[in-house]
Write a structure and sequence with these properties.
Layout (H helix, E strand, L loop, with lengths): L68 E6 L3 H11 L5 E7 L7 H11 L4 E3 L2 H6 L5 E4 L6 H10 L3 E4 L7 H13 L4 E3 L7 H11 L6 E9 L20 H5 L9 H5 L13 H15 L8 E7 L12 E7 L4 E7 L10 H4 L14 E5 L3 E4 L6 E5 L3 E6 L5 H14 L7 H19 L4 E5 L4 E2 L3 H8 L13
Parallel strand pairs: 1-2, 1-4, 2-3, 4-5, 5-6, 7-10
Antiparallel strand pairs: 7-11, 8-9, 8-15, 9-10, 11-12, 12-13, 13-14, 15-16
Helix pairs in contact: 1-2, 4-5, 5-12, 9-12, 12-13
Length: 481
């Protein structure tokens, strides 16, 4: 498949060229509003992290299979708990020493079940810095809300810890750049929670397309259309309970009074996420689509329309968004919403078996249209199928849910120092698409022109300021990691 190369930032093969001057320090003034950013000058400088990418890390710190890998969980909600328990059950000679969460009501199940699995009770801690100070810890699993992902990852790298960080990898475009810098500078493994990178069927689909079997790819359509509609009732602010360190929970986000809605339903607020289901779910399909398309560079523009069509409530995020990305040689669209009760994700029988989804009402499918044939790709299992005219299936491969394989890859990379399948560069490149879609929506459902070379929005200063983000005093992303 022919495609123009937009400064191919994805390659791990780029040689490390030392540490150039870092990007400008991310704005930490929480009082600076987006409307005050009229005079921002767009920098014509290639992002500093690109000069710091290394093709490989040092092998001198490898661990043998007989050496125990010691980990900590940071962010012990339901998803983080399930993640760490699944990892512990792999029996890869792993010990989870800490369960860290600023909310004391979280982590109990993780501690109880981990004690049964590993015969050692993890210590509960609130402050992740205690984890980073412990020289026994080899790696961490970061499953916090998204607004903490970047700072926690950077701190972990600075402390010499390897990282598994959940998706969406970053909260702003520039955060992802600094995460790459930290991983390269401290030579840390950073595995992103884009688990389809460990799905074998994604790579076979890529080879099928590279061999020209679809012809020239012209359009790609990614969906995250979940059951709903789902009303939301925001709770009033109250005094924070003694069981939570609310200031630390907020971290880089603006200081606001405690609200159980913000605490438990943080995916409804821009301060803490890129929104559900966009950043919380469709990042999986976007990353898999990029993998199957041989990891193209960045788009040159994005247009996003959407809104709160169904409920007049206080949610920041829209009921529905549709984004169109122009990659010059092909177009990629993304639809995300939670109002479609007739759509459903692939069930367990499909994800853990050899069958294929019923594509027409599959909520998370990827469609790839070529000049010869079209391909459907399943997310988190489901494999792929290629259709010719008259509904004829001409090629297919089933595929399994890849989370166990992804966790296993993380542990193996801690031991070998090989780069993980879901590396931070690809995690950043996929997250940029989420950020661009949201920026176009938040700018008034408009088209934004993006420079793939400089990773900057060139036609809207306010949107570019929002792409850089703000971070509260004491929780800044450092300019020099």
């Amino acid at each position: 498949m022919k495609r123009r190369n937009f400064f191919y930032t994805a390659a791990w093969g780029a040689a490390g060229l030392g540490f150039a001057a870092s990007c400008k320090e991310i704005n930490s003034d929480k009082n600076k509003s987006i409307t005050e950013a009229e005079n921002i000058q767009l920098s014509e400088e290639v992002p500093g992290y690109r000069k710091k990418i290394k093709s490989s890390f040092s092998q001198r710190k490898t661990k043998s299979a007989n050496e125990r890998v010691v980990l900590a969980l940071i962010g012990a909600g339901a998803y983080g708990t399930n993640l760490v328990l699944e990892l512990a059950e792999l029996k890869k000679n792993v010990l989870v020493k800490y369960v860290c969460d600023v909310d004391d009501t979280r982590g109990g199940r993780a501690i109880t079940e981990l004690e049964k699995i590993q015969g050692h009770k993890p210590e509960r801690v609130r402050d992740m810095r205690k984890v980073f100070d412990d020289k026994d810890i080899d790696g961490v699993i970061i499953a916090t809300p998204e607004h903490w992902h970047a700072l926690a990852t950077i701190r972990a790298c600075q402390a010499g810890k390897d990282v598994y960080v959940e998706k969406c990898v970053s909260h702003t475009l520039t955060e992802g750049q600094k995460m790459i810098e930290a991983a390269m500078k401290y030579e840390r493994i950073v595995q992103c929670g884009t688990q389809n990178r460990s799905a074998d069927y994604g790579y076979s689909a890529r080879e099928y397309i590279k061999n020209g079997e679809l012809g020239e790819v012209v359009s790609v359509h990614v969906r995250e259309l979940l059951p709903g509609p789902n009303p939301f009732s925001e709770k009033k602010s109250t005094k924070a309970p003694d069981t939570i360190d609310w200031d630390m929970w907020l971290g880089p986000a603006p200081k606001v009074p405690y609200s159980i809605s913000r605490n438990k339903s943080w995916g409804n607020y821009w301060d803490y996420s890129g929104g559900n289901p966009l950043a919380g779910g469709s990042i999986h399909q976007l990353d898999l689509a990029r993998l199957v398309l041989d990891d193209p560079g960045f788009p040159k523009s994005v247009y996003c329309a959407g809104g709160r069509y169904l409920f007049d409530d206080n949610r920041d995020i829209p009921d529905y968004q549709m984004a169109t990305f122009d990659f010059e040689n092909f177009v990629l669209t993304l639809q995300a919403g939670d109002f479609t009760p007739y759509m459903a994700k692939s069930n367990a029988e499909i994800r853990f078996g050899e069958g294929f989804p019923e594509w027409k009402q599959n909520a998370t499918r990827i469609e790839i249209h070529g000049t010869k044939r079209m391909m459907y790709v399943g997310r988190m299992g489901g494999g792929w199928q290629v259709y010719d005219k008259d509904n004829q299936i001409v090629a297919q491969e089933s595929g399994l849910y890849p989370r166990k394989a992804h966790l296993r890859n993380y542990i193996n990379c801690i031991r070998t120092r090989n780069q993980p399948k879901g590396n931070i560069i690809q995690g950043h490149n996929s997250s940029v698409l989420i950020h661009l879609a949201n920026l176009a929506y938040r700018s008034g459902n408009k088209q934004l022109i993006f420079s793939p070379e400089y990773e900057m929005i060139t036609n809207d200063n306010n949107a570019q300021a929002l792409a850089e983000g703000t971070h509260r005093k004491g929780y800044e992303i450092p300019g020099e990691v």
